[in-house]
Amino acid sequence: MSNGSGSPARTLVAGVGNIFLGDDGFGVEAARVLAGQDLPEGVEVADIGIRGVHLAYQLLDGYDTLVLLDATARGGEPGTLYLIDATDPGTRQQPDGVALDGHRMSPDAVLALLDALCAGTGAQPPRRTLVVGCEPASVEERIGLSPQAAAAVPEAVRMVGELIRAEAVVT
Fold first, then answer.
1. 46 has pLDDT over 70
2. Neighbouring C-alpha atoms within 13 Å toward the C-beta of 113
């Protein structure tokens, strides 16, 4: 896919989370595994970790698609994977009462900051924003994923592979 300028579309796959909080490190681990895969031209994989402000500023460089990998508590069984389309800027509201903290920004807060930065600079946010999330079993202080989250990593990598390949052929 071309991004209209004749160059290949740019996709950023960002693994977010805190590896010191158990399953919160799911996105970072999935990004690590994905980075070892053969990926289409124009796809970058980044271990963002807890650097949410860095992610928002990196997105100002002009990406067509953003895929976030993250722990996502939605009430399902631990290890359940979710695909969430967060493309609509109306879904990017920073939660009330949450201060802008570069080390504790949820993906919602990062996307809200990105929208504010784009409005102020004239930059364009990614055309499409997707979240591949994993229901955590535990986000208590510890290093390493629960067995359920660890077992979900290969399927998440497969899902992201399909998503980025599909994005590469969409016009």
1. yes
2. 21
